[in-house]
Amino acid sequence: MLSPIEKNRIYRVLDANRNRAIEGLRVLEDFARFGLSNSILSKKTKDFRHSLSTACSEYSDRWLLQRDSQADVGASITAANEYIRPDFASLLVANCSRVSEALRVLEEYSKLLVPELAGIIETLRYEFYELEKSLKQQIRTSDRLEGRQLYVLTSGCDNEVEFRSRMERLVEAGTHVIQLREKNLADGELLQRAKIAVEICRHGDTLFIVNDRPDIAVMASADGVHLGQDEFSVRDVRLLVPTEMLIGISAHSLGQALEAEKNGADYIGVGPTFPSRTKCFSEYQGTALLAQVAGQVDIPAFAIGGIDLGNLSQVIECGFHRVAVSGAIHRDPSIDVISQFLMQLESGVKT
Questions:
Q1: 165 pLDDT above the threshold of 50
Q2: What's phi and psi for 270, nearest 5 deg?
């Protein structure tokens, strides 16, 4: 049997860790809201905070009555660098640790007095692990795609020499992201092309993405893989590739764009916007879809489909400042054309 004094001590522990968890969650909520501008993660964090408050509401008043901040021997104990947060990532890590540790303490000490609460906290603790993963994944993606506006799709060319020359030209011109989209090469040849691309992109500041083939992307150590709507799901591919690998997906409607964001895609390609010479579609969404996505989707989104220097301004006017192009670059593969794309994109508000 616990004595009244022991119960009061436990109440103080529970009160302190409830507060610690709630405060940490509020920091994470604002991190998602203002630091990441991600409405989905902000809402998830807010909902989690409310769930924790609700779970503890029946007991929290009793815990509060035993609070004694002035007599708290831990109030004056500080750790080295406790008041230093060098960047957003460190803020995220510190508050995720604060929440997960507080939840574990709540669970363990609840077992002494209210076992039913311990079970609820255990469930919440596992839910938080998934939320923490999503937050950390999002800041990683935001950092890697920050300022990357021009995404060029290329085939594997007729031979390795031609492919190497094209990759070198694209990287030298300052292309931000390059995707290898090739359906006709044998797997061994495709893998070799991907390895060449990785080697060249590593010498510049260009991300390299493989279309449709997570296996090739992994074996070549690419920066990411891009999926179509009829390919593997984002969640399935996430199990196959390294945690740092980007996963993009094509979205042909607002619903698909929102679903991609919900399922953890790092970025989306939105379109087709205009008729294209490189890929045929039965219908083209035009700029209306771009405007919808720009207003409702938070993850990075690249407009795709028939975009060239003549219609780029229409894309930018919809609130899109990232584009994926193919034919417009390869019809005139000069560095000057790529520079013109970059200048027009950078003249708008960067996302």
A1: yes
A2: -110, 125
